[in-house]
Amino acid sequence: MAISCSGKSKKANARAVSPDSVKKELSAVIPAADLSNHPGKQLYAKQCLPCHQADGSGVPGMFPPLDKEWVDGDNETLISIVVHGMDGEIEVNGEIYNQIMAPLPHLSDQEVKDVLNYVRMEFGSSDNEISTAEVREVRNSGSGKKGYQ
After folding, report:
1. Closest to 41 (Cα-Cα) out of 54, 58, 32
2. How confident is the model at residue 6 (pLDDT cuts 50, 70, 90)?
3. Sign of CA dihedral 105, 107, 109, 111
């Protein structure tokens, strides 16, 4: 039996490591890159992809890209854009866009939360998750922030 500097045997210092404990520790350190089963992915494909495209690049001159500045922005603005819509000029990456984004009030609070959290993970860098309570609060406010309908 080997003895460590502390005078204790290495066996006494060893701890049991199960495959489940290793997986749990790794998942806390390594973010999940696979979003294929994210609940917001199908919603994005149905509700957002036609204008913002599969890669979030948008359509130049018509529909803006899902730029990190917007995607990682404050929760209230993102929620308001989806729930209440948006009109008027905006600038994204130095390009002006002036199309109406129709509101999507038919999406449930859970669906809005799911699609926006998916968008953040896929096209942004924010780990600031949106909650259903935040969606409900913005929806119940009756209108969006200034500049949004």
Report:
1. 54
2. very low
3. negative
Q: What is the mean pLDDT of residues 123-143?
A: 91
pLDDT of residue 87: 94
Taking 60 as the threshold, does the pLDDT of residue 43 lie above it?
yes
As given in the structure block, the two tokens for residue 59 are 């359509």
Block residue for tokens 């359509």 = 59
pTM of the model: 0.73
Q: Closest Cα to residue 73, out of 48, 57, 61, 90?
A: 90
Nearest Cα to Cα of residue 149 among 115, 110, 109, 102: 102
* All residues at 6 or more sequence positions from 110 whose CB lies less than 8 Å from its CB, including other chains: 132
The string of DSSP letters for 55-116 reads TS--BTTTB----HHHHTS-HHHHHHHHHH-B-S-EEETTEEE---B---TTS-HHHHHHHH
The answer to whether 107 touches 36, Cβ cutoff 8 Å, is no
pLDDT digits (tens, 9 = 90+) for 65-101: 999 988 999 999 999 999 999 999 999 999 999 999 9
Contact criterion met (CB below 8 Å) for 83 and 130:
no
